[in-house]
Design goal:
The protein is an alpha/beta fold. The chain is built from 31 helices and 31 strands.
Length: 888
């Protein structure tokens, strides 16, 4: 309003004075326009600083409220009338409409008069094609800088709502905003509200999302034609917005907006005034480069910062903040600084007289700081650290060392190192002190020859590694020693477990290999024995001898099965079982095994759950446990077998390291025998460990139990006390499947035939045996002793051979490779693989092959003939049969 009144007064003044230097100022908007007022006042003030007698003719196009071309025609006529008898020295235009009008009417109204423009939006389009004698200041806004500052102050912001009207000048501003914020649009959503009336926009802003801010520019007219002053529009938006409002111009500050990097009207006007002064001073406007950008100082309103919870310390550096609360410092700044100056002078005088004291205190502080840094470092590391003086007495001990030795740090200070660090040899238990004298005398690092046992003051024993090194002063003299040691007990235990696991793996591999070789030998023994038993007179002694031989062979077969079970290389035939039924079926056999001098009790649980298990291996587990109990009882006692359902929860498992949470069916074998001490209990499941006399045990019984239980994904718990007997409890995962009934009796017929069979076997004992078995059953047999020979025989008789029985492992060419060669010749060939390995030990491409039929060694006469007949009758049906559960 002041600028408006000034403009009117100046115009009246011009009516009174016809002579002198004067300036025509054309404003694009109306006199009440805030931006126009600020820019105009700064321009006039700046010109009058240099030209106090300058006169001004000020005109307003009012282009926002009345953009009609007819009105501009009337305005042109009015200005022409005012300029009829006078010529301005300079034309100043504020904003685009005024500049466009001045350029368009220049020749008609003020030809050749230089022009200085201000507030021009979209200068990039104007640059390079300015008319002669024109310069000025471009009006550039800083939407990107304002949004980036808002994003730092509101980290959760994802949207920017741009409040702007649809007038022509505002649409130019919209294009400027879009160009400037282009780098942000990949992760920030910009929504322009220029397609709404004021009421519609306010309704939208009342429910604005929490992740948004408002960025406001000019808003003078809504889509409904309603006109608003700039301050009125800002107040309405700020009062109704649910989120913070930022602005692009300084006239918004103090009217409800938070702030921003604002285009300052006063600063902009003074820049234009500077250019006007230069032109009025005689410089050519064409020689003065236009200023292509405006300054945008960060400005904020303290009231709005408090409203939206923004810490002023988070604002950009050099920010201007209005409406700050009263500050005593701001009100009395000069007095305060004067007082501080006097005090500083006094302090300097005191410092000058006390320089020596200050230096000494500084050195003391530095030493204290170094001491504190050293303490923090030593207290933070995970190793124990002890520092001694030159006499070997402790001067520092960190918390880890104090904890490991059992000494309080304050109590350990001053003691000899050997008193606190009590080390003994782990084997001889003799003292093994650190070689302090060697380190202090020779200045060489030293470490223990091997891991030593630290006997702490609290009677704990820890295995440690340590090393010592000398401490030297600045001159290189030895003034002490530092010893670093760490607890390696857990590491040592892990190494022991790793060695044990490696030993078990090696034993398992050995067991698998031994089982394979035994199976080939047993194949010949049992096969020829069965044939000899059939040929011998039933009532003769030879028949009896052969029977005993076969019993011995089957016991050897059982031992091989135990080796495979121990090494977990035996494939199980899993089926749902009722342990009550399985155990009840076994009680008669178990009574024969344990003898009449030991009572057997069975306590079955009601509603016992089922388990998924191998019936034969459950039998072996129970038998081994009962035999173990029998040997522990001796002359007389009781073995109790009990079953039950149990759930192991996390609390139970936390207290029992061997346990795994879940639902289980358990069975236990409890005896009244001699029990085991802790040493025996720790080795109970180790292979070949036995407490029985020579020839009374293999040492595989309990290790086999352990291996079989682990194959069933089960758990084993042992409880024993010397003199009070032992209880072995087996936990097997409970199954939801119903228990299956007993197996149906097998077909005892000995099938034969007249087909031609190719038999490939590299073992000189097994080949003639298998050939004899097949030929006695009526088959024609062609033989080969390795894979290459088998392929040659097949090539010679490809059309005649109905079935190939191939040993899996043969020299020159394996059974699998020979099979592939044969199938390439005749795809419908039926094949049986024979192997002394368990299926789990076979190569993956063999064990998983769907076209494989496996005959497990050692096989009986009946097994061989039945498998051959089944394969011939079935034709080429590719599958892996359920008979793969063979022993060894």
């Amino acid at each position: 309003m002041a600028a408006c009144q000034a403009g009117t007064a100046l115009a009246q003044e011009e009516d009174e004075f016809d002579h002198g230097t004067w300036v025509l100022i054309l404003n694009s908007y109306h006199p009440d326009h805030v931006w126009t007022q600020n820019v105009l006042a700064a321009e006039v003030a700046r010109i009058r600083e240099v030209f106090p007698s300058a006169r001004f003719l000020i005109e307003y196009l009012d282009a926002k409220r009345f953009p009609s071309p007819d009105r501009l025609q009337l305005l042109e006529e009015a200005i022409a009338a005012k300029l009829r008898d006078r010529r301005p020295a300079l034309v100043v235009t504020n904003d685009n409409a005024a500049f466009d009008f001045a350029v368009r009417q220049r020749e008609a109204l003020f030809p050749g008069v230089p022009i200085v423009f201000a507030g021009y939006n979209g200068y990039d389009e104007l640059a390079g094609r300015l008319p002669p004698e024109v310069t000025g200041v471009a009006s550039t806004i800083a939407p990107r800088a304002t949004v980036e500052t808002a994003l730092r102050l509101h980290p959760g912001t994802r949207r920017v709502l741009v409040a702007i009207d649809a007038t022509r000048s505002a649409q130019g501003t919209r294009l400027d905003i879009l160009r400037d914020v282009a780098p942000l649009r990949g992760h920030i959503e910009f929504t322009f509200l220029d397609d709404r009336s004021m009421d519609e926009m306010l309704a939208y802003l009342r429910s604005a999302p929490d992740d948004a801010i408002v960025l406001m520019s000019y808003y003078n007219r809504g889509t409904d034609g309603q006109f608003y002053s700039l301050h009125e529009a800002i107040r309405l938006v700020a009062e109704n917005s649910a989120v913070p409002v930022y602005h692009l111009y300084d006239f918004g500050l103090g009217h409800g907006v938070v702030g921003g990097h604002l285009l300052d009207g006063d600063m902009h006007g003074r820049q234009a005034g500077d250019l006007a002064v230069r032109v009025l001073s005689g410089e050519s406007a064409s020689s003065i480069p236009p200023i292509p950008y405006s300054e945008h100082p960060p400005q904020f309103d303290y009231t709005q910062l408090a409203r939206w919870g923004i810490d002023p310390d988070d604002l950009p550096p050099d920010s201007w903040v209005i409406n700050r609360p009263y500050s005593f410092y701001d009100a009395h700044r000069y007095e305060i600084w004067a007082t501080f100056g006097a005090m500083a002078l006094l302090v300097l005088l005191v410092i000058g007289q006390s320089a020596a004291i200050v230096r000494r205190r500084r050195i003391q502080r530095e030493l204290a700081q170094r001491e504190e840094d050293l303490r923090i470092t030593l207290d933070s590391i995970g190793d124990g650290v002890i520092v001694t003086d030159a006499q070997g007495r402790i001067v520092r001990i960190n918390p880890v060392a104090a904890r490991l030795t059992g000494w309080e740090a304050a109590e350990a200070i001053g003691h000899p190192l050997d008193d606190v660090l009590n080390l003994v040899d782990p084997e001889s238990r003799q003292p093994a002190p650190v070689r302090i004298d060697h380190v202090l005398k020779h200045g060489e690092p030293a470490s223990l020859d091997s891991r030593s046992v630290l006997l702490s003051r609290t009677k704990n024993e820890l295995l440690i590694d340590d090393s010592g090194a000398p401490i030297r002063d600045a001159e290189g003299a030895i003034i002490g020693m530092v010893l670093v040691f760490r607890d390696v007990t857990a590491e040592h235990l892990m190494e022991q477990k790793l060695r044990q696991a490696q030993k078990m793996e090696a034993i398992g591999q050995l067991a698998g290999g031994v089982a394979h070789d035994f199976n080939n030998i047993l194949q010949a023994i049992l096969g020829y024995g069965e044939m000899a038993e059939v040929a011998a007179e039933p009532d003769g002694s030879v028949h009896e001898f052969i029977g005993e031989m076969l019993k011995a062979g089957r016991r050897a077969q059982t031992l091989v099965s135990q080796l495979l079970a121990f090494s977990r290389r035996q494939v199980l035939k899993m089926e749902p079982l009722d342990l009550n039924e399985v155990i009840a079926d076994l009680t008669k056999m178990i009574r024969r095994i344990i003898g009449e001098h030991i009572a057997l009790e069975f306590v079955p649980a009601a509603d016992l759950g089922t388990v998924l298990a191998d019936r034969g291996q459950i039998t072996q587990i129970l038998t081994n446990l009962c035999v173990n109990s029998r040997d522990a009882i001796g002359e007389g006692g009781t073995i109790t077998i009990a079953t039950g359902n149990v759930t192991l929860d996390t609390d139970f498992c936390a207290a029992h390291a061997w346990a795994v949470p879940g639902h289980y069916v358990k069975f236990s074998v409890t005896d009244t025998g001699c029990g085991m001490d802790e040493s025996t209990l720790a080795q109970a499941f180790e292979p070949y460990f036995t407490t029985k006399g020579l020839g009374k045990g293999t040492g595989l019984g309990l290790s086999t139990v352990y291996g079989l239980v682990k194959q069933h994904r089960g758990l084993v718990e042992v409880e024993s006390q010397v003199g009070n007997g032992t209880t072995f409890t087996i936990y097997l995962p409970r199954s939801r499947r119903s228990a299956a009934g007993g197996a149906a009796p097998g077909d005892t017929q000995m099938p034969g035939g007249h087909e031609t069979i190719l038999l490939a076997e590299d073992d000189p004992m097994v080949l003639p045996l298998a050939r004899e078995m097949l030929e006695r059953a009526g088959y024609t047999v062609l033989t080969a002793t390795d894979g290459e020979e088998a392929v040659r025989v097949f090539e010679a008789h490809a059309d005649a051979i109905d079935l190939a029985v191939l040993d899996m492992v043969m020299p020159r060419l394996s059974g699998r490779a020979a099979c592939d060669r044969m199938l390439s010749i005749r795809k419908d060939l039926r094949i049986i693989f024979a192997s002394g390995y368990s299926p789990a030990e076979l190569p993956a491409d063999v064990a998983g092959a769907r076209d494989m039929v496996l005959l497990q060694k050692p096989y009986t006469h009946t097994d061989l003939l039945r498998r051959v007949r089944e394969t011939l009758d079935r034709g080429r049906v590719p599958q892996q049969t359920g008979r793969r559960e063979g022993g060894a």
